[in-house]
User: What shape does this take?
Amino acid sequence: MFLIVGLGNPDLEYLNTRHNAGFMAIDHIAKLYEASWQSKPKFKSQMTQININNIEVVLSKPETYMNLSGMAVQAIASFYKIPISNIIVIHDDIDLAFGRLTYKLDGGTGGHNGLKSLKNTIGTNYHRIRMGIGRPSNSNYDISQFVLEKFLEAELAIINKNIELIAKNIKFLITNEIEKFIKEISF
Assistant: This one.
């Protein structure tokens, strides 16, 4: 069994914001596999389950807000007995150029509060799909404001293309074909 988590904030005001790139990606995965979200207060998450190549996969959008995402992930992983090595987290990354996608196993938090929360609850030995949102062009611009702003229309077209790539190729992470996943999302 695997757990795929999209990081983001649950309120409608955060819809299509840079910090919600993870939610956007996991929503597309659920849609591709014709799965419906259900609120699961016990796990502080919106959740659904899909099957990829006969492997059960839990999808989660924590409702704890970004800074406490680890609580939800830990509760789900513990209940379903999912090892940390079978957790995939999709998140925005300000240190990655806008529009870039990368895969990483393990690593630091890069100042990302959602990743800090995960580090404090489950550690860091999980799979990551990093979605580059870039930095503001003005170095004096408030980073916390930047990540909570909505994508511009032109940016959204690129993000949606990346989301499609992730959803279409996530099966390769589930079947441990990591190199194939990396090849398919790299451009």
Q: What stands out?
A: The CA atoms of residues 6 and 22 lie 4 Å apart. The chain is about 35% helix and 20% strand. Helices lie at 21-32, 69-80, 113-121, 143-147, 153-174, 178-185. The longest strand covers residues 45-52.
